Amino acid sequence: MMQEKIIACSVRLMFISGVAMGTGLFAHSALAQEVKTEAEKIQKVTVTGSAIKRVDTETAAPIEIYNKKDIERTGATTIPELIKNLASLDVNDTGEQTSNSPSGSGVTNIKMRGLSERNVLILLNGRRLPANALADGSGAGAAVDVSSIPLSALERVEILKDGGSAIYGADAVAGVMNFITKKNYQGAEGKAGYGKSSRSDAQEKTASLVFGVGDYEKSGYNVLASFDMIKRDPIMRNAREISRSSDFRRFFGGTDGRSGYSPYGNIAGGGQLKPCPPEDLSGTTCRFDTNKTLLTAVNGADRFSGMLVGSFKVNNDIRAFADFTYSENKDHFEAQPAPGVYKDDQGRNVNGRFMQIGPRTTDRTGSLTQLAVGLEGNTRGIDWEISAGKGVSKITNQDSNYAQVDLFNDAIANHRIDPTSTTNSEAEINKFRLTPLRTGKSELSFVNAKASGAILDLAGGPLSYAVGVSYLKDTLADNPDQNQIDNLVFGSIQQAKVNASRNSKAVFGELSIPFIKNVEAQVAVRYDQIDGVGNKASPKLAIRYQPVESLMVRASYAGSFLAPTLKQMYGGMDAGAESTDDPTICKAFPSIAGKCQNFSYLRVGGSNPDLKPETGKTYNLGFVFAPSNIVSIGVDYFKISKKNEIGTLELEKAIELGRYEIKNGEARILLNNQNLASTDISGVDLDFRLNLAKTAYGKFSLRNSTTLYTQIDSVPSAGEPTKNSLGIFLNPRYRNTFTLSAEYTDFNLALVARTTGETLDSDLGKDKIPAGTPTIPSFTEVDFGGQYMGLKSLTLNAGIKNLFDRMPPYSKMGSTNQYGSLGYSTTHNLRGRFFYMSANYKFY
């Protein structure tokens, strides 16, 4: 009794303090779960997007839910494979299709609403996960790697699509994706799968085990353990026609994307150190085809993930819980020997590639560890939860076969090696050979407390509240090799070191106000205080109106407040190599640009400790019409406006402002982080569902989900003209997923068609795109799969992904070094037809 009084007093004090401070909502446990009190004996759930437990799961927020059966229909064996089937997500396979990128290779991030991955909050059972430990200085990749989440443990996925900053925190600008695990699961089941492409590569082996013991209600506890494993072979670029060579002139309108960094040595001003083979000579430049060997189009995978979830009944009103997650992935990448600029024995700058040192390799090991513990319960009509935890993401990149710049140039100048030869003394090469090591660790510690309950009855139901507090500590340690920091690694990207941390505190509150019958309003506000960034309130207003049982109308407004990443603020300088034929850039470097053919330069980025938060506004207006249990139609219009976005100057603007230099013979354009840009995005989500009554031929259902963009406008910096990116490269107008499923006796069958809309083959604003620019046509992949459940305890699965073996269309932009030199847009995939099968056995 004393314990209950203490808890009740604490919760009421929390509520009074929250109201006094004008607080708003926080829902760090957006986990849907059942709670039955002795008094009520009814089911309450917490829905993603609200911290108030309720009987009705319909709220004013547009939420997309995929249950276990929906997930199984996709045939997905991993989270990256699953998200390709969700139309509301902007699929871009750059992580799977990136080789030897210090931060991006093998990583899967989620994007929504045309915004970067930093604008989507990823939750596992309603709790945050640490961001990827190695991220780009621009902020790219500073998000959760969702490939670390075990698929076998999931019960469902919930996607909040109207922004959730007032509920969950600053980084929920575009939306929230909440991965929710099984609850009170008893039994054991194992699954093993095998797949291979029709071209006998991309071999994939998967295995999973789920084990649950204890009935929470009867035994007072439940423990769930899950383990997932995947091993996948890569797809080599030379194994597909579209990417087998970086000379894309074999396609209509294609360009020669072969590198100007040649083993024969291209001398600045013209000519080569050694005669160039005629087939490799283009104008005065000797070209090198990087795609012919070594490089992958789709990376391999070697991943393991496991999860342990425990629930323990303290008494009839209080539950203790603990979640432990661990994942590990290993990747091996190979690339051509490093390109770069060296001095020949006459002191001339040479764009070359020293082949004898061997291919660059990166052995990448990443891990994610997270532990969360807490208590939740119901005391005197108040639902409450207290939780604490810590997540750690670690990544180690071990590189090899690089050269130390100064020692390499000294060996050439003193004739100890010939950079165009492959018969030099290994002893001399080993004097300048480097094996750079880069390590990263991202930590996120959190303590959360919240409470919710009813205050009084209104005409439409109880006036309910949720209040709480949150504390976060974010720490980042990114430690490149000292030679990488000093830009002394020949042909490598200059990388910046960062060791920084900051604390964030927040108070929050939410009200659910059912004014009259069938009308409910949601009012929420969150106040964040972030060290080194500032303070900000993020409001949310939403309303749901249901005039008749078959129609529900909803509208919402939310403000957002996205803080810069630690690396964006404190990460020093980094650089990446690119090449161009753009005369605007070449004119800035007349002494080394020559005839401006495949001219190489460095984009030099860097941190800025004076960065301010990005701010935004999100609007949503929609309805759901369900005239019967057979048909459901959902339509939602969304609009997002962001200001003070962190970015870099456009290249032409940087040159206009004189932000460029020549250093060590290399052209450098200086582009540090600034609050420059603004973005306006709008569109419509369409969701149509049809569930037919059972017939003699089975039970059929159909679902068609579309996200259609109507505006993607950005202003790169103040005073610059608006850039209209709607329907240009990497920004298709729409994504559509069509699913037709059938259930007949012991068979479940599903046909899934995924379509990405057409785009113009240019990344310029529409007003700058030249007439006659080709169009990348829309791209559709059709999957067909099924289950057989006629055997006791055994379920057999088989299917074909990309049934018609569609290959991506050629893209001029996709053939450039800036976009991976693959020859196609990374909104597509070149795996082709893929066969898979699996068996799932329930032990008991």
Task: Describe the protein's architecture and organization.
The relative contact order is 0.13. The strands form eight sheets. The protein has a 22-stranded antiparallel β-barrel. A five-stranded mixed beta sheet has the order 1-4-5-2-3. The protein has a four-stranded mixed beta sheet with strand order 28-29-33-32. A hairpin with a 6-residue loop joins β6 (187-197) and β7 (204-213). It has 844 residues and is mainly beta. It has a single domain (2-376, 395-842), classed as Maltoporin, Chain A, CATH 2.40.170. The two termini are 41 Å apart. α6 runs antiparallel to α7. The protein is 9% helix and 48% strand. It is globular and about 85 Å long.
Question: Descriptors for this entry?
Answer:
single chain, 844 residues, mainly beta, Maltoporin, Chain A, 22-stranded antiparallel beta barrel, five-stranded mixed β-sheet, globular, disordered N terminus, receptor, transport, Plug_dom, signal
In short:
The protein has 844 residues and is mainly beta.
Structural class: mainly beta
CATH fold name, please? Maltoporin, Chain A
Report the mean per-residue pLDDT as an integer.
88
Q: Which term fits the overall shape?
A: globular
As a percent range, the share of helical residues equals under 10%
Count of discrete alpha- or pi-helical segments spanning 4 or more residues: 12
Q: What proportion of the residues form beta strands (DSSP E)? A: over 45%
Q: Can you tell me the CATH superfamily?
A: TonB-dependent receptor, beta-barrel domain
Uncertain segments are 1-42
The main pleated sheet reads as: 22 strands, antiparallel, barrel
**Could you name the CATH class?**
Mainly Beta
Distance between the termini: 41 Å
Based on CA atoms alone, the radius of gyration comes out at 28 Å
CATH architecture: Beta Barrel
Domain TonB-dependent receptor plug: 58-176
Domain TonB-dependent receptor-like beta-barrel: 318-803
Protein name: Iron complex outermembrane receptor protein
Keywords: Cell outer membrane, Membrane, Receptor, Signal, TonB box, Transmembrane, Transmembrane beta strand, Transport
